[in-house]
Every structure is written in C-alpha cells, then in structure tokens.
Design a protein that fits this description.
Layout: E1 8-11, H1 20-34, H2 41-51, H3 54-61, H4 72-80, H5 87-98, H6 108-115, E2 120-125, H7 129-139, E3 147-150, H8 151-154, H9 162-171, E4 178-182, H10 185-195, E5 198-202, E6 216-218
Parallel strand pairs: 1-2, 1-4, 2-3, 4-5, 5-6
Helix pairs in contact: 1-2, 1-5
Length: 233
Amino acid sequence: MDLSKYSTVLFDLDGTLIDYAGAQKHAAEYIVEVLDLEESNATLKHIIGFLEGNVIQDLEACKPSAIEPGSGEMRQAFSKAGLGVDPVEFIELYFEGLEEHAEPLPGIVDLLSLLGKKYTIGIVSNGPGSVQRKRLLKSGLMEFLDIIVLSCEVESAKPDPEILRCAMKLADSKTYDTLFIGDSAGSDMGAANAAGVDFVFVRPDGDFSAPGPRVLELRKTAELMKYFSNKTV
C-alpha cells in the first residue's frame, strides 16, 4: 500500500510516538516515593491500574466527564479504589512524574525525520498542554512538528472529531488528504472515523479485533516508513 497520496500526517502521541506505558510506570514510582507508600510490585500495579482507569484518563484528557480533583466525588473514587491519599496531591504528582518521561518509541525519530521533509506533520493528543509540550521537548520530537493540537488547549478530546478538524484547519488540509495514526480503537480510531479521516491502527500486541475502518494495521509505528517511501521531496 502506498500512503504517499496524503499531504498531512497526524499522529497520536502516547503509545504511538512516545512510550506511554513507561511514562505511567515512572509516574507511579514517583508517587510511591514521594507519598512514602509501600514499595512493592502489588502497590505499583494497583496504582498503574488506577491511572489507566476512566477517573484519571478523563481528567488527563480534560473531558467534560472529568471529576474535579478536589471534589467529594473524587475523594470517593479514590476511597473506592483503596487509595487512602489526598487526590489533589496524587494527581499533581502524577503529572509531575509523567512529564519527566518522554522516550520515543523505536524508529520514531527516523520516521519523523523522513516525513517532515515531505508532509505537514502534526500531533493530536489528549492531555494537558503544559505536560505534553514538556514531554515533546524532552523527547526531541518537537523539531519535526508543524502543528500540535492538545485536548486541554482546544477543549475537545478524542474521540470527539472536532479535535481532528481543528488540526486539519491548522494544516489547511481536507479529509481526503489527511491521515491519522494511533494506537487506540476507542479514542484514535473513533475520532478518525467520526471526522471522515483515513486511519492507521498501530497495535504492538497485535490485537486488531476492534471493529472500525482503517487503511492499514501495523505492530510498530516506525513500519510506516516503507509505505511513504515512494514520494519525493
């Protein structure tokens, strides 16, 4: 398959370009250290599981459904999860730990270096602006990007298609010449399909069972390199 017909290539950030699992693990370890919690694999696993849940993910994406950190509802959510800590401090520590870890996935620097010479390249990510921008700088990927669209800055989070439409407006591209690459069926593929944009589904675990249109399935984002190789500068 030749993907060189597109003029704009948009990427999800976490799990697609940057190691999100590693970042969450680092943040969980940071929380355990600062809050002086029991240092065990069970504690770490429990915290990571909570970080991956809707309570924190909705907050991280600035979704309308997000619970305010200092609210009674948030305290109840922490209590239900068996976390006897201050939610506000926990969440602040999470973002502090998260922004310290920004390791590009294998082959990503080479991929963006190649594509950046030929296409408009953008990031469309759910997350706080200050956190994601610091991570992009730390990762060294910022230099390859023409546009950055973050959910907490534009008040639209994937799978809402408006966040992709915002990116396309900045890139001055249309649905037919825009490609979006991501690793989440619900968030990334959902947004692409709703916006009418072609989608590449990246799943390191090889699980492509989620329904939904996509033009390509890959185990690694860096594998895109060979599908764009036919376009000249």
